[in-house]
User: Which sequence fits this backbone?
């Protein structure tokens, strides 16, 4: 089914600043945008198990995928005339999946290309871990080490960079500069979209 809404996904490795950036963008752009919250944080904070077992990880990623799809579709229906700013997207689960990313998509009867088409633009925030900077940021749901954050960042990058409208926002030791760079990219995306309406 063709979509009528406009979706921008903010993604990247843990500790990249995407959630903070999403909130700042919403404040800057006002009622033109609505944030689709991160499904994983909702599930984990609601009591969903965070396990090291491979079988539990797979069930968890399937649940996150389903919740993400439903959140996006619900927000698209509720806010028909707004831009959806998605805090992560359905492709992210493939990077957290234990094993090959293709297995993730096959287990959900979908494909990478089908999931990429859910989004109009991808803003990828590189993890601060590549600069050796702590990624804690006060998020109790974050358990990754710096090494694991870099590994996830690379897996996400290899998947999302295949999107036709992919924007890479590099790590910067100044978080303000990084967010400003992302905001500039976001503004370009929004302006281009609004010109088509």
Assistant:
């Amino acid at each position: 089914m063709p979509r009528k809404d406009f979706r921008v996904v903010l993604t990247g490795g843990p500790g990249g600043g995407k959630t903070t950036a999403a909130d700042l963008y919403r404040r800057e752009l006002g009622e033109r945008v609505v944030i689709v919250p991160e499904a994983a944080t909702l599930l984990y904070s609601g009591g969903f198990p965070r396990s090291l077992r491979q079988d539990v990880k797979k069930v968890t990623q399937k649940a996150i995928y389903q919740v993400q799809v439903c959140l996006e579709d619900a927000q698209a229906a509720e806010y028909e005339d707004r831009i959806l700013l998605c805090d992560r997207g359905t492709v992210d689960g493939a990077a957290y999946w234990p094993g090959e990313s293709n297995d993730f998509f096959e287990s959900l009867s979908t494909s990478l290309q089908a999931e990429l088409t859910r989004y109009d633009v991808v803003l990828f925030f590189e993890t601060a871990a590549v600069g050796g900077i702590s990624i804690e940021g006060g998020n109790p749901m974050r358990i990754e080490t710096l090494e694991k954050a870099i590994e996830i960042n690379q897996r996400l990058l290899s998947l999302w960079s295949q999107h036709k409208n992919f924007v890479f926002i590099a790590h910067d030791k100044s978080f303000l500069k990084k967010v400003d760079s992302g905001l500039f990219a976001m503004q370009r995306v929004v302006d281009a979209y609004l010109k088509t309406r």
